[in-house]
């Protein structure tokens, strides 16, 4: 049914696709899996320039990743954000030395959802299955004039449209079309290889309906405890920034603490404003104290990096 469309997509990909991306030039399932995890919520440019190659050089196999301490993994992940991705990547590596090719078995592994499982199956094992990342969703919505599609409907369409003969190039092409042509704003419909079958090309920006997002602001008081020129840090628990080292958040700063200033950091779902205070301890009240040089070797969040810079700037 879509033979001509598949041929057009294939020709477009060979001429205009991002063929040189390193994870598109390997059959190593671990490297492909790593790229898929890194690319969740992160731009290709950032992953390519700063994280993908150094991570593989440090952990060249799934086995070596699983044998490494989580702290080392988090340190290599530092700056990528969404640290649960790194934790789940590491946990998966402790469970298996090789990734299974079966989608249902992949989904059972920590942090591997339906789309990541499909991506690994399609790209590492060349199975005739579609993928469903944000760019592809937008394409499918425009092809079928879908304003509020359900996940079930999108997967039905995706399976119907996928090129079962060449799923690797097809899926990579769909992502590239979404990233470079079928844009959220001002899509380039006049050069789109899917124009012939697109029902929404007259008003593409109607599909899908855009969700309105309100980004709340959170306020925190951060207390830097200092004892004999070393700073107290704790290893975070809970879902957010779990496993990273960071400064203590307090409701009310100590009476004798000194106000240093404020740092701000914007996350995807909220903005964080931190008022930072310094408190000199006469006796160590916590268990973990580090020099500034030692802190540089720990896995800490971007906001804690900003707090360290503020501390150094005021000393």
From TrEMBL:
<dbReference type="InterPro" id="IPR023170">
    <property type="entry name" value="HhH_base_excis_C"/>
</dbReference>
<dbReference type="InterPro" id="IPR003651">
    <property type="entry name" value="Endonuclease3_FeS-loop_motif"/>
</dbReference>
<dbReference type="InterPro" id="IPR004035">
    <property type="entry name" value="Endouclease-III_FeS-bd_BS"/>
</dbReference>
<comment type="function">
    <text>Adenine glycosylase active on G-A mispairs. MutY also corrects error-prone DNA synthesis past GO lesions which are due to the oxidatively damaged form of guanine: 7,8-dihydro-8-oxoguanine (8-oxo-dGTP).</text>
</comment>
<feature type="domain" description="HhH-GPD">
    <location>
        <begin position="38"/>
        <end position="180"/>
    </location>
</feature>
<keyword id="KW-0411">Iron-sulfur</keyword>
<dbReference type="Pfam" id="PF00730">
    <property type="entry name" value="HhH-GPD"/>
</dbReference>
<dbReference type="InterPro" id="IPR044298">
    <property type="entry name" value="MIG/MutY"/>
</dbReference>
<keyword id="KW-0234">DNA repair</keyword>
<dbReference type="Pfam" id="PF10576">
    <property type="entry name" value="EndIII_4Fe-2S"/>
</dbReference>
<protein>
    <recommendedName>
        <fullName>Adenine DNA glycosylase</fullName>
        <ecNumber>3.2.2.31</ecNumber>
    </recommendedName>
</protein>
<keyword id="KW-0227">DNA damage</keyword>
<dbReference type="InterPro" id="IPR011257">
    <property type="entry name" value="DNA_glycosylase"/>
</dbReference>
<comment type="similarity">
    <text>Belongs to the Nth/MutY family.</text>
</comment>
<keyword id="KW-0479">Metal-binding</keyword>
<keyword id="KW-0378">Hydrolase</keyword>
<keyword id="KW-0326">Glycosidase</keyword>
<dbReference type="InterPro" id="IPR015797">
    <property type="entry name" value="NUDIX_hydrolase-like_dom_sf"/>
</dbReference>
<dbReference type="InterPro" id="IPR003265">
    <property type="entry name" value="HhH-GPD_domain"/>
</dbReference>
<keyword id="KW-0408">Iron</keyword>
